Amino acid sequence: MGAEFVQLSLTPLLIGTLAAIACALPGNFLILRRQALIGDAISHVVLPGIVVAFLVTGVISTWPMMLGAAGAAVVSVILIEAIKRLGRIEPGAAMGVTFTSLFAAGVLLLEQSDTSSVHLDVEHALYGNLESLIWLAADGWASLVDPLALADLPPELTRMAVVTAMIAFLTLIFWRPLKLSTFDEGFAATIGIPTAVLSFALVVTAAVAAVAAFDAVGSIIVIAMFICPPAAARLMTNRLEIQVVWSVAFAVLSAVAGYVLAGYGPLWLGADDAVSAAGMIATVSGLILGLACLFAPHRSRIGAPRDAT
Amino acid sequence: MSNALLDALLLQSGYNATLVAIGAALLGVAGGSGGTFLFLRKRALVSDAVAHATLPGVGIAFIIMVLLGGDGRNLVGLLLGSAISASIGLLLVEWIARRTRLAEDAAIGAVLSVFFGFGIVLLTVIQTMSSGRQAGLESFLLGSTAGMLFQDAVVIAIGGALSVVAVFLLRRPMTLVAFDAEFAAASGVPVRLIDLAMMGLVMAVTVIGLKLVGLILVVAMLIIPPVTARFWTERTDRVIWIAGTIGGVSGYLGAALSASAPKLPTGPIIVLVCFALFVLSLLLAPNRGVLAAIVRHLRFQRRVHLRQGLLALAHQEQIFDPLTLRVLRRNRLIRGDRVATDRGRALAARTLRDEKRWQVAREIHSDETVSGRYDGLTPIETVLTRDEIAEIDRIIGGPSVAR
């Protein structure tokens, strides 16, 4: 673990881990509320948001794009709700209509404007660029206390740290109302918790996590981390508190193991080049979920007939 | 309408474009009608998992074909690979939802993200391979007709036609299962088998649609047409055919539009045409449309105001509400100076009598069948028989005259 590790791997590893935690935390509630696919929907509608932000401002810079993405996410949540209510359509189908159409609009916009030439391509959005978030100024562990080197940290790291801290903080503050309204919305409403506002706020928080992570690591990690670690954690325990702890542990494990496997795995197998870190992190989280499905203590429904259809 | 668009619509812009337009229309019909069964079983987003799960299959098929010495771009080979990995993904969704306590949406999300992630890993492996031409593989993510070869178009057209035939042959048992699985099982339909056939069909549409619209947008072809069709009818069998038509029209129109001008990518255009049809239906459909609902609401509001206005006239009360005044005036029940016309007085008396009859009727028949139908609008003649009304009139005492 020498200077090279600090320079090349430490920051992407940290960013990936933070992104995984930021997505897994709201994911716990989304899974229990049967809104697991909201992460999938959000990560698709982020594309038109980014393209529009670019067309409006004309520059590739982070803040307008994050605002655009967040705006698109909120628009899509409102659209899904409107289609559900106005058309009396079940949530899954309403979601499918919304995100596919917005994604199509995004691709069309992208083709119409020559944004593809300025590194705003779809592959970048999908894979992310985790590997490129290196810390050039670092030359060893000592750089961690060197203010000059610290100033050169990738800005994604700071952003992701702030967003993750904010989400952890929000989860702590709103723990009781969130838990109550997730498990028994009717009861929560009777004791005066504004469940509709809370539910919307949860989705917006998820959108913020998704957009921040999307910027740094691509959309695959976002979708995978929203679902796989919380789902695996749900199979480990019956208590929400413990489930959240498990989900964070699984998220960190996926991020670290996925990054290491992507970077060094091919070398062990004799190949020369690394594979996509984002893809590998998603794959590892899937393997963890697979193991949980097979062996976790609370994997089956209590009282459900063995052959439920 | 530009000439290029007209040419494309009339299938005059070249053999390849024609084949693509026909293929897109067939794919739309197959997607729309096949997707209907998913939609009716409330499993619309399963198609999302299926679409994403095709990617690793594409990658593995490419790698195997390159290792066997080809250039890795044989469409049939890639489709075969994507079909196999999509089936595995589909079975995993089913397995997770049935065997663990995770809900189906979590199963869908897990499978789609993990399969897609693994597919991306394979794509980066392919990028580092020295042999093989991987250039076409990215088009699987977004679809592209620009690089479509003649035999690709043929594969799409034939596959679309076969799927349409499959929908037609299986429509009865699939309708039964989608509509009421338990009844279907009781009447001897092999539900599990039909379910698998339905999923097989969805998978086929997804795999065929990959090259044309790309793996993310093919989901739209399975979801949007059925949702749109649902606005127009309450009958399951009609939903299937309307959805098929909507899908077909979107496919054909979208393909023609994108052929008529450069920089109009086929997949997104087809999806956006489909979405436009959806929005139109959401707004304009009879009964379930938004506009119909607004009209219904306004009409109801008018009737309430008319009734209340007439009762006020009968009681010789002052009317202040502007909408009530407007409704009364438009029906020539009052004059400009708010004095009731003869017609107004007659109608007011009749309304008052109806209200009194209702009062008595609700006292006599306290059961739901009669008093439950009192909403202040329904004339009592439509609820009670003439004899019953005569009985009520006897209690009220003689036909009253307008005061």
TrEMBL record, chain A:
Name the record gives this protein: Metal ABC transporter permease
Family: Belongs to the ABC-3 integral membrane protein family.
Transmembrane spans: 6-25, 37-56, 157-175, 187-210, 216-237, 244-262, 274-296
Intracellular or extracellular location(s): Cell membrane
Gene Ontology BP annotations: response to zinc ion; transmembrane transport
SUPFAM superfamilies for the chain: ABC transporter involved in vitamin B12 uptake, BtuC (SSF81345)
Membrane topology term: Multi-pass membrane protein
Native species: Nitratireductor mangrovi
Keywords: Cell membrane, Membrane, Transmembrane, Transmembrane helix, Transport
Cross-referenced Gene3D superfamilies: ABC transporter involved in vitamin B12 uptake, BtuC
Coarse class of the protein's main subcellular location: membrane
Gene Ontology, cellular component aspect: ATP-binding cassette (ABC) transporter complex
Pfam families, alphabetized: ABC-3 (PF00950)
Domain of life the protein comes from: Bacteria
TrEMBL record, chain B:
Membrane topology reported for the UniProt record: Multi-pass membrane protein
GO cellular component: ATP-binding cassette (ABC) transporter complex
Pfam families xref list: ABC-3 (PF00950)
Transmembrane feature ranges: 20-40, 49-69, 75-96, 108-129, 149-170, 200-227, 239-257, 269-295
Compartments where found: Cell membrane
One biological process term in Gene Ontology: response to zinc ion
CDD domains (UniProt xref): TM_ABC_iron-siderophores_like
Keywords: Cell membrane, Membrane, Transmembrane, Transmembrane helix, Transport
UniProt cross-references to PANTHER family, sorted A to Z: ABC-TRANSPORTER METAL-BINDING PROTEIN, METAL TRANSPORT SYSTEM MEMBRANE PROTEIN CT_069-RELATED
Family the UniProt entry places it in: Belongs to the ABC-3 integral membrane protein family.
Name of the protein this chain belongs to: Metal ABC transporter permease
Species of the source: Nitratireductor mangrovi
